[in-house]
Amino acid sequence: ALLSVEALSQNIISQLFKFVLLHYLYIGLNTFLIITIYNYRKIDTTESSDAFANFNLQYDISDNDQLVFEYRVLDSKSDRFQNNDLIIEDTSTTPSQGIYENNRASDYFALGLNYNKKLDSLGQNLNFITDYFNSDAQSNNDYNNLFFNENTNELIDNNTRRSSSKASYKIISSQVDYNYPFKENHDLEFG
Questions:
Q1: Rounded to an integer, what distance in angstroms lies between the CA atom of residue 174 and that of residue 170?
Q2: CA distances from 73 to 31, 49, 70, 172 (A)
Q3: pLDDT band per the 50, 70, 90 thresholds, residue 101
Q4: CB of 82 within 8 A of CB of 40?
């Protein structure tokens, strides 16, 4: 009988999440092997959105003068919920259930204003560059893993972790560059 594409892909995914870890191996007079088997199933629902825009405007004031304005913005958000079922089989069987939740947001924008001045027809030029960068990022993580007795289904251990991070940057920079060509394919630059 032929399997549907969906059934076949579920079977392949199921096999991928089953793996064997060699826990202890002894080769000698009394040869034995203990195998720990992790049977892992994951349900993951992730929703994310990213918006990015880049805007450049160049204005030629004259043949020797140029003004450039740049604006970049990024807005990124992600909400993730993951439910894990794990059965650890060693000398006993330990069912486990894990719940992981992550919320992340990141926003930044950057402004740039540049002025370029050609000083002569030989290639001398002067550049004024200014930039402003602003970034805010935040991430919240919650993780809870429960371990149960295989016979009574009673809770035998609980592992809970929580983390939160926030970062904010505001950077202002400027520079002035002078370029002087003194030989063919050789420039001298100060900045």
A1: 14
A2: 63, 14, 10, 16
A3: confident
A4: no
Task: Report residue 105 as tokens.
Answer: 């947001």
Extract the tokens encoding 147.
């371990």
Query: Which tens digits make up the pLDDT trace of 159-171?
Result: 888 899 999 999 9
Radius of gyration of the chain measured on its C-alpha atoms? 30
Bridge partner residues of 48 (DSSP)? 78
Among residues 169, 140, 133, the alpha carbon closest in space to that of 81 is found at 140
CA 133 to chain centre: 20
Q: What percent of the chain has pLDDT over 90?
A: 25
Distance between CA atoms of 149 and 144, rounded to whole angstroms? 17
Mean pLDDT to the nearest integer, 124-152: 89
SS3 181: strand
pLDDT tens column, 10-33: 554 444 444 333 334 444 444 444
Task: Take residue 90 and report the two structure tokens written for it.
Answer: 């060693």
Nearest residue to 179 via CA among 121, 119, 131: 119
User: The pTM is what?
Assistant: 0.57
**H-helix or E-strand containing 154?**
none
For the CA atoms of 85, 90, 91, 92, the dihedral, rounded to the nearest 10 degrees, stands at: 0
